[in-house]
Write a structure and sequence with these properties.
Layout (H helix, E strand, L loop, with lengths): L10 E4 L9 H16 L3 E4 L13 H12 L5 E5 L11 E4 L11 H13 L3 E4 L3 H10 L21 H9 L5 E4 L6 E6 L3 E6 L7 E4 L4 E2 L1 H11 L4 E5 L6 H11 L7 E5 L2 E2 L9 H7 L8 E2 L6 E2 L9 H9 L14 H7 L10 E2 L2 H14 L2 H15 L11 H11 L9 H9 L7 H7 L4 H13 L3 H4 L2 E5 L5 E5 H13 L3 H13 L7 H24 L1
Parallel strand pairs: 1-2, 2-3, 11-12, 13-16
Antiparallel strand pairs: 3-4, 5-6, 6-9, 7-8, 9-10, 14-15, 17-18
Helix pairs in contact: 1-10, 9-11, 12-13, 16-20, 19-20
The protein binds one RNA strand through strand 8, strand 9, helix 6, strand 16 and helix 11.
Length: 545
RNA sequence: GGUGCUAUCGUCUAGUGGCCUAGGACAACGGCCUCUCACGCCGUAAACCCCGGUUCGAGUCCGGGUAGCACUACCA
C-alpha cells in the first residue's frame, strides 16, 4: 500500500445515482465528504452515476442537488444547483469544473477507450452469455460464481476462437466485458476507518465492466475511471461498498494507476430505529418520520415520500443530527454549526459500527435550532401553515406579521417544529367556542361564572392604554421580571375577596384559551386586547354557565 | 451457504492498559419553578455480548465462540 496522498490536493466526491429521492444515509455520506473537503481546503465534487439506464427516475437529479443546496452542502465542482434560479421555480443545474462531463451517461466515449485498454492488456474479456443462460447456470450450480474456476465453461472470448468472437461482434450480438480476476491472491485494502482489510481474490467474481446493450459501463468501471480522471484523492462512501473495494483496488492496478489510487474510508450504515437492518423508506412510513431530506413525488411509480424540510425541520438541525450519527467530537459538545463541524471533523473519530436512526434525538436538535431563529424568521415560515389552517376563518391578526412574530416569541420554546406552533397558538387567532373537558372539570368551579362576571366589571375600568402596560421589577429572589399593570389591578382584588389566585386565573384562562394551557395570562390579554378579552369572557360565561 | 465488517446504558456515543465504584446527550422517571400546559433547572434509574489468554492490572491488547449487519446482479 502506498501512502501517496500527503502531497496531493484533497478532492472528494459525492456520486449518487438518480434512481429516486436521496436517502438520508446518502445525505450523511455527502456531509462527511463535504466536511472532510472543507477542513483540508480541498474540493467537493458531485458526479451523477447514471450507468443504469433502466433505473433512471425523472427529477431525481434535480432533487439531489436541491437537497444538498437546502442543507448548505456546497459543491465546488461537477453538477450543482445554480445560484440564480429561473423564474418558473424549477431548479437550474449548472456544471462547473474542467473534468467534465459529470454525468456518466455523457462519458461513453471516455469509457470506450478504457474498456479497450483492459481488453488489450488481457485484464478483461468479452462474454456472450445471456442473462437467461446465467440464470440457468445459477439454478443448476449452487453458489455459482463467474470466476477463474468457471469462466472456461462459459461463452466468452477466452473459450471461443477469435474469428467466432469477431463474427458474433459483427453480427451485433449483445455482449458484456468482464474483468479477469486472477485467483489465489490476498488483496489488501487500507481503510481510513477500519484499517487493513484483506480479501482473497477467489471470492471475487469476474465483474461485468461494460454492457453493449446500452453502451454503458457498470458502476465498478465508471467509478474507477472517473475517480482517476477527476483526480479524486479520497473515496468516502457507505460500508456496503467495502466488499467490492478489493475489486476496485485490482482495477486501479490493472490500469496501472496504483500510485494515485485514492484512499478509502467506508462509513458505518444507518440502521432502522427498531430491530435490525439498513434504514429504508418503509421504516419511515411505518414509524412516521421522513427518510428523505425533501418531499419527493416519484413520477415513475407514483409514490410520494415525505421530507425533513416539509416536516418543519431546519437544515442546520438535520446537519447536526446527521453529523453525530456515526461521528463524535473529542469533547461532550453536541451542538455544532457547520463551521464548527468543519473544524472538528475527523475520519478517525467516525464509528465503525452501524448507527440506529434515533428520530427522537432529531426532534431535540430541531428544538434547539428553532430557539435560535428569530421570531420574524419563524413567522415567515409559520405564515403558510397559518394560511392553510385559517383558509375559511379569516382573522385580522393572521395578516399582521409583527403580531405573529410576537405570538411565536411567547410559544416557540414549547415546540419542536414550526407546524406545531399552530397547536400552541391557535387560540390567538380563533376564539374558543368549545372548552376542554378535563380543564373544565378541574378548573371551572361553581363560583367561576360569578368570579368572571366580577372580573369583567373590574377589567372594564382599566383604560385601553393601561391594559398593555408592563414594567420591570425584581422578584423575591432578586431577579429582574416583567410585571403587568393588570397584575396590580387583579391581584389586590382577588386578595381582598379571598377568592384564591389559582381559582380565578385558571377560569379566566379557560375563557381565553379554551383549555388550561398556554403562555402567561397577561401576555395573552396583551395580545388579544381589552375588547376581545372581555368578549371572550362574556361568551364563556354564557356558554359554560 | 460463502466472504467481510462490527459488538459499552432502550438509543447516539466518550473511553486508545491504571484518571472507570465507566462520562455526556436523547428518551424515561422524580423534584423544583408556577395561575395552566409547556420550556428551563436539578436529580434518579440504566451498559462494557460470552469464554479463555497476555499483564501487577483489561471496557481497552490477543485468541476462540456467539450475535447483528453488509456484500454475494449485465443495481448502485
Amino acid at each position: 500500500m502506498l501512502y501517496n496522498n500527503m502531497e496531493r490536493k484533497v478532492r472528494v466526491r459525492f456520486a449518487p445515482s438518480p434512481t429516486g429521492a436521496l436517502h438520508i444515509g446518502g445525505v450523511r455520506t455527502a456531509l462527511y465528504n463535504y466536511l472532510f473537503a472543507r477542513q483540508h481546503g480541498g474540493d467537493m465534487l458531485l458526479r451523477i452515476e447514471d450507468t443504469d439506464s433502466t433505473r433512471f427516475v425523472p427529477g431525481a437529479e434535480e432533487y439531489i442537488l436541491e437537497a444538498l443546496d437546502w442543507l448548505g452542502i456546497e459543491i465546488d465542482e461537477g453538477l450543482r444547483a445554480a445560484k440564480s434560479q429561473s423564474t418558473n421555480g424549477k431548479l437550474q443545474i449548472e456544471a462547473v469544473g474542467s473534468h467534465g462531463p459529470y454525468r456518466q451517461s455523457e462519458r461513453r466515449e471516455i469509457y470506450h477507450q478504457y474498456v479497450k485498454q483492459l481488453l488489450d492488456s488481457g485484464h478483461a474479456y468479452i462474454a456472450f452469455d445471456t442473462p437467461e443462460e446465467l440464470e440457468a447456470k445459477r439454478a443448476e450450480i449452487p453458489n455459482f460464481q463467474y470466476d477463474a474456476r468457471t469462466r472456461m465453461q462459459m461463452r466468452n472470448s477466452l473459450t471461443m476462437p477469435a474469428e467466432e468472437v469477431q463474427a458474433l461482434l459483427d453480427k451485433g450480438e449483445k455482449y458484456v466485458v468482464r474483468f479477469k480476476v486472477e485467483p489465489d491472491e490476498d488483496v489488501h485494502v487500507h481503510d481510513l476507518i477500519r484499517g487493513e482489510v484483506v480479501i482473497n481474490s477467489n471470492i471475487l467474481d469476474d465483474k461485468v465492466l461494460y454492457k453493449s446493450a446500452d453502451d454503458l459501463p457498470t458502476y465498478h468501471l465508471a467509478n474507477i475511471v472517473d475517480d482517476h480522471l477527476m483526480e479524486v484523492s479520497h473515496v468516502i462512501r457507505g460500508e456496503e461498498w467495502l466488499p467490492s473495494a478489493p475489486l476496485h483496488v485490482l482495477l486501479y492496478r490493472a490500469f496501472g494507476w496504483q500510485d494515485t489510487m485514492p484512499q478509502f474510508a467506508h462509513l458505518p450504515l444507518l440502521l432502522k430505529p427498531d430491530g435490525n437492518g439498513k434504514l429504508s423508506k418503509r421504516d419511515g412510513d411505518r414509524l412516521g418520520f421522513p427518510v428523505f431530506p425533501l418531499e419527493f413525488h416519484n413520477e415513475k411509480d407514483g409514490t410520494v415520500s415525505s421530507g425533513y424540510r416539509e416536516s418543519g425541520y431546519l437544515p442546520e438541525a438535520v446537519i447536526n443530527f446527521l453529523a453525530l450519527l456515526g461521528w463524535h467530537g473529542s469533547g461532550d459538545q453536541e451542538l455544532y454549526t457547520m463551521d464548527e463541524l468543519i473544524k472538528e471533523f475527523s475520519l478517525d473519530r467516525v464509528s465503525k459500527s452501524g448507527a440506529k436512526f434515533d428520530y427522537e434525538k432529531g426532534k431535540w436538535f430541531n428544538h434547539q435550532y428553532l430557539q435560535l431563529r428569530s421570531n420574524e424568521e419563524l413567522a415567515e415560515m409559520f405564515i403558510p401553515v397559518l394560511e392553510e389552517k385559517m383558509s375559511n376563518d379569516k382573522c385580522q391578526m393572521a395578516n399582521d406579521k409583527t403580531m405573529i412574530a410576537k405570538i411565536i416569541g411567547l410559544t416557540k420554546d414549547r415546540v419542536n417544529f414550526v407546524p406545531e406552533l399552530w397547536e400552541q397558538t391557535n387560540f390567538f387567532f380563533v376564539a374558543p367556542t368549545e372548552y376542554d373537558e378535563k380543564s373544565l372539570k378541574k378548573r371551572w368551579k361553581e363560583d367561576s361564572p360569578r368570579h368572571m362576571q366580577e372580573l369583567v366589571a373590574l377589567l372594564e375600568t382599566v383604560s385601553e392604554e393601561d391594559w398593555h402596560k408592563s414594567y420591570e421589577t425584581t422578584n423575591d429572589d432578586g431577579n429582574a421580571v416583567t410585571r403587568w399593570l393588570l397584575d396590580d389591578v387583579v391581584m389586590p382584588w382577588i386578595a381582598e375577596k379571598e377568592y384564591g389566585v389559582g381559582i380565578v386565573m385558571n377560569a379566566f384562562r379557560i375563557c381565553l384559551v379554551g383549555a388550561a394551557r398556554g403562555p402567561h395570562i397577561w401576555e395573552i390579554t396583551n395580545i388579544l386586547g381589552k375588547e376581545e378579552t372581555l368578549r371572550r369572557v362574556r361568551f364563556a360565561i354564557e356558554k359554560i354557565g
